[in-house]
């Protein structure tokens, strides 16, 4: 079979990273078209990999030499671009967020459902990380009994000043939103944000760190410490606490399991590109394989919509200081949205 011909839109840090993986590490894929609003950047990337530049993003999506699309463009462009992919019947891997507001995200849910087949995959790469996969399997297999709580930690050493409290919810906490839904297989029903003392490194008016609390439809509580100016390192940890034990991932890249008989142990795994580079490779390979069949293999349009809805509630919680309910629309039938868990 011939390679899947891919258009990559957006050639910033993530887009360039995806181009590199697609051209050097992913089987069955060829980047044929690239697009970026910085013309010189697009020309340089195209020349290096033997692709063509198409200056208009919608034209790039509709190009006859494109079978599938990877979007690493700003979130404000996603609604129009994902809609164009659906109109063209082309599978699309969209980096988060699906869109920048609840209404347009849900419109994409409805549009895909009307097509009757899943075409939209959202780039929540942690679902492909070996530690998260192992923790998911442990939970599904009953190794912890019924899971009662998750405790998450998300720390960056430093970020630009535009990472204010609301941006921290939308850009960083969004990963823990998807992790919660993935691990617990339950929708998040409310969000509360506790903002205490802020680091001196935070701009005026920015709460950093914050403690975000989710409640799920099954009554589980989830805490997420988000601290993006820790000055130390990139640290991502998740602990699941169940009725028959607990399991922790992300501590020195271990999955550490503690059980009721007093035993503990785990497997050493590989720390942003170092920590999740392997997960990105698995994500892209599985997407390419599925897109070649005209479908997706991973978190779908409903997952993207649910994450946007939870983050909007989180932003409201930052502003109000109150516990805010998450409002989700009616979910289409599984055959229509094609979510993989």
UniProtKB/TrEMBL annotation:
One Pfam family this sequence matches: GFO_IDH_MocA
Enzyme class: oxidoreductase
Keyword Metal-binding belongs to the record: no
EC number of the protein: 1.1.1.18
InterPro entries tied to this protein: Gfo-Idh-MocA_inositol_DH (IPR050424), Gfo/Idh/MocA-like_OxRdtase_C (IPR004104), Gfo/Idh/MocA-like_OxRdtase_N (IPR000683), MI/DCI_dehydrogenase (IPR023794), NAD(P)-bd_dom_sf (IPR036291)
Record bears the keyword Oxidoreductase: yes
Domain Gfo/Idh/MocA-like oxidoreductase N-terminal: 4-124
Reaction(s) this enzyme catalyzes, per UniProt: myo-inositol + NAD(+) = scyllo-inosose + NADH + H(+)
Domain of life: Bacteria
Domain Gfo/Idh/MocA-like oxidoreductase C-terminal residue range list: 136-326
Keyword field: NAD, Oxidoreductase
Role noted for this protein: Involved in the oxidation of myo-inositol (MI) to 2-keto-myo-inositol (2KMI or 2-inosose).
PANTHER family hit by this protein: INOSITOL 2-DEHYDROGENASE, PTHR43593
Entry's family note: Belongs to the Gfo/Idh/MocA family.
SUBUNIT field: Homotetramer.
Full protein name: Inositol 2-dehydrogenase
């Amino acid at each position: 079979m011939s390679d899947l011909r891919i258009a990559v839109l957006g050639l910033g840090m993530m887009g360039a990273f995806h181009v590199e993986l697609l051209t050097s590490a992913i089987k069955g894929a060829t980047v044929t078209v690239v697009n970026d609003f910085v013309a010189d950047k697009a020309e340089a990337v195209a020349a290096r990999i033997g692709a063509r530049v198409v200056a208009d993003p919608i034209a790039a999506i509709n190009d006859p030499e494109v079978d599938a699309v990877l979007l690493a463009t700003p979130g404000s462009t996603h609604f129009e671009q994902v809609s164009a992919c659906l109109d063209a019947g082309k599978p699309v891997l969209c980096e988060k967020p699906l869109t920048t507001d609840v209404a347009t995200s849900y419109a994409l849910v409805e549009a895909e459902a009307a097509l009757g087949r899943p075409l939209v995959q959202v780039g929540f790469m942690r679902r492909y990380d070996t530690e998260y996969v192992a923790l998911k399997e442990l939970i599904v297999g009953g190794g912890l009994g019924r899971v009662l709580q998750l405790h998450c930690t998300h720390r960056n050493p430093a970020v630009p000043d535009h990472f204010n409290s609301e941006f921290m919810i939308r850009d960083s906490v969004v990963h823990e939103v998807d992790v919660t839904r993935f691990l617990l297989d339950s929708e998040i029903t409310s969000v509360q944000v506790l903002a205490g003392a802020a680091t001196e490194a935070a701009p005026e008016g920015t709460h950093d760190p914050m403690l975000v609390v989710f409640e799920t439809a099954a009554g589980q509580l989830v805490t997420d410490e988000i601290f993006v100016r820790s000055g130390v390192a990139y640290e991502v940890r998740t602990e699941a606490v169940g009725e028959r034990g607990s399991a922790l991932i992300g501590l020195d890249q271990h999955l550490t399991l503690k059980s009721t008989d007093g035993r503990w142990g785990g497997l050493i795994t590989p720390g942003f590109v170092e920590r999740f580079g392997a997960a990105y490779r698995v994500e892209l390979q599985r997407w390419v394989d599925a897109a070649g069949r005209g479908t997706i293999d991973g978190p779908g349009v409903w997952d993207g919509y649910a994450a946007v809805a939870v983050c909007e509630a989180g932003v409201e919680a930052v502003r109000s200081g109150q516990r805010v309910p998450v409002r989700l629309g009616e979910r289409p039938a599984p055959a229509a949205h094609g979510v993989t868990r």
